[in-house]
Amino acid sequence: MGGLPAGSPLSTFLADCVLQEIDEKVNAKFKSILKWYRFLDDTFAALSDAREVDVILKFLNEFDPSLKFTKEMETEKGEGHSLTFLDVEITRLNNHCIRRHYIKTTQSDRTVGFNSAHPRSVLKGIVKGEVKRSFENCTLNQHRITEANRIREKYLKNGYPLSLITKALNERKPSKISVRKRDPPRIWAPIPYIKGLYEVVASMFRKFNVGVYSSTGCTIQSAASNGWKSKAPLKNEAGVVYGVTCKNCHKIYIGQTGRKLTERINEHKRAVLNKNNSNAVARHVMETKHEADFDNIKIIKREKKAGMRTLLESYTIAANATRKLNISPADNGMTQWIDVFRETFPDVI
Ligand SMILES: [Zn+2]
Prior knowledge:
Helices cover 39% and strands 19% of the residues. The longest helix is centred in the first third of the chain and has 21 residues, at 9-29. The chain has a four-stranded antiparallel sheet. The protein has a three-stranded antiparallel sheet with strand order 10-9-11. Strands 1-2 form a two-stranded antiparallel ribbon. α3 (120-136) packs antiparallel against α4 (141-157) and α3 packs across α5 (162-171). It is α+β, with helices and mostly antiparallel strands. Among the domains are: 9-73, no CATH class; 120-171; 234-343, GIY-YIG endonuclease, CATH 3.40.1440. The model has no long low-confidence stretch (mean pLDDT 84). Zinc ion is lined by residues 246, 248-249, 251, 284, 288, 290. Residues 246, 248-249, 251, 284, 288, 290 line the site of zinc ion.
């Protein structure tokens, strides 16, 4: 293989297949490797013998002339030695590892502005997400406090109210147990987000215990493509990423199959009848007494190639993290790639 086109989502998948093989060979050969963590093209390794570093690097560089590996060694920091990996700075001190959230010095504080046209819940989610990530990356409480101050400053600069930021920070305190003020809605409805109107409509619906979530409304693309293509009857479809929605809440099960879709859907139906706990749709039905909407199966994407279909399935699951019914995470680090996919496949949710 001479190379892969940049920007194609399939390239990530194929490159990962090659690197997985290299991971296995290196780990089988060198016993000095204590830890070996790889994310895409970045690997963090801990060795029992520092002299082996260059031997391993030479071994890696002999795989293929088109693959070039470089190394970065830990540097002295205070009393320990530290090295950054992705967004974590790892410091080795007296044979212990201390993790800390790491931000590139070149990174600006610019983020989605509070005045941009997004529902309040999305803006809250952005702050909460950053708090969660940075807190989880820190081993020590003192570093979490530094992170809390940084996040507060950053979001204030972007126009977020202090009360919202403080709430997001407080929610992460382990001692705080959140108390639900009201029962979660039993019915959910998607509404296109229009600033001002969405909030009013959402609060009206809430009085009737109907949950509302924002959806992309009609885009030029969807207007131009929806309903124009003649579609094969559902039962004849094969090679699809599909969704089974719940009739009572807005949750969705995302799956893929290379066989006829009806065959796969019949398996779900049987699982529901047999109360098969390992089937996510069946489990949701059992746990909530909700009903799966088997009459309106969504075809998310038609894709004949199995690898690509799996990739699209993972992406769709990751993109629907809050409403997915799937039991296994099946995320495969996909969350990192959601934006790339969204641009490549604007028609997939
Ligand atoms: Zn449900």
